[in-house]
Amino acid sequence: MSQQQGRRRSGREDIEIKDLRNFVVVAEELNITRAAARLGTQQSPLSRTLRSLQQQLGVALIDTTGNRLSITPAGSRMLVEARRILQQVADLYPQAQAGDQGQHLRIGFSFSAGGRMPQLLERMRHAAPSTTASLVSATALASPFDYDVLLAPARPPIPGIIQNLLWQEPLWAAVPGSHTCSSLSSPLFSELLLLGTVYHASDLKYALGHLPRSLRLAEVPYLDVAMVDSLVSSHHCSVLIPESLCYPMQLAGLLLRPVADVPPMNICAHTVEANQSGCGPWLARLWNNGVLPSSFEKKAVSDQGS
């Protein structure tokens, strides 16, 4: 038997990237209907692809004998390797497409993601010097289809949209000096509500969805330093802001307090799955490889606790 025939019999030559991607989605969803919707395909072709991959490998990856799908031990090992391979492939796109002429990325970012953009851009410059970027301030209703990548708080799953976690952003409250909560190092959210309206940018609505609804919780389409200063000063209220935006708010003379019982929100890179750019996973890898909080954040946390 020739070496080529041996490779064909083992199936190694025939495994394609899309087969690995299909397997990963099925393994994550453990539901063919949801996996097909996420991949933008039909259930029957997806099932055939999964069976073909298992035949090529000569091992069962997904157990379909019961009422529900379950991943086998071999499938669990395969899932780790498949994710690693897909990540490596995704990382190739931004660097390979840049080439000698460079690649240009159109990056949209919502209010809550804006505070860490300088750090992210600095890492981009070091990792891919020939890649340039245009930054576009995006509204809470912005669509990933309008950009190469949209940086914004996590949203409910949307078919065809991939969300790659970049960082978790703690929420702080900007309060007036006369506010009762100004004497507290870490007020509770309920304490903010009892003492006045709590405003927040519209892009935070999904991150705050777990909180009880209240007439005193109000969203505004967009916030900046001047608007936060105006709301706090004129309405004697509090405004929720991301931790990374505390520094410019402090310059405006506002008192800032971390909110004790509101969990950090997930800031994600939202990309369209069909464009195959790999931009979202690439940015996630860049951010998670060692970016530290700013010196202000570390100092602010220390000061607030004293």
How would you describe this structure to a colleague?
With 306 residues, the protein is α/β, with parallel strands linked by helices. The protein folds into two domains: 3-95, Arc Repressor Mutant, subunit A (Orthogonal Bundle); 103-306, D-Maltodextrin-Binding Protein, domain 2, CATH 3.40.190.290. Helix 2 (17-29) crosses helix 3 and helix 2 (17-29) packs across helix 4 (43-57). It is 41% helix and 20% strand. It has helices at residues 3-10, 17-29, 32-39, 43-57, 73-98, 117-127, 189-194, 225-235, 246-251, 279-288, 295-305, and strands at 62-63, 70-71, 104-109, 132-137, 149-153, 161-169, 171-175, 198-201, 217-220, 238-242, 255-258, 265-272. A five-stranded mixed β-sheet has the order 4-3-5-12-6. A five-stranded mixed β-sheet has the order 9-8-10-7-11. Residues 1-11 and 290-306 have low confidence and may be disordered. Strand 3 (104-109), helix 6 and strand 4 form a beta-alpha-beta unit.
Relevant terms:
single chain; 306 residues; alpha/beta; Arc Repressor Mutant, subunit A; D-Maltodextrin-Binding Protein, domain 2; 2 domains; 5-stranded mixed sheet; 11 helices; 12 strands; 41% helix; 20% strand; disordered N terminus; disordered C terminus
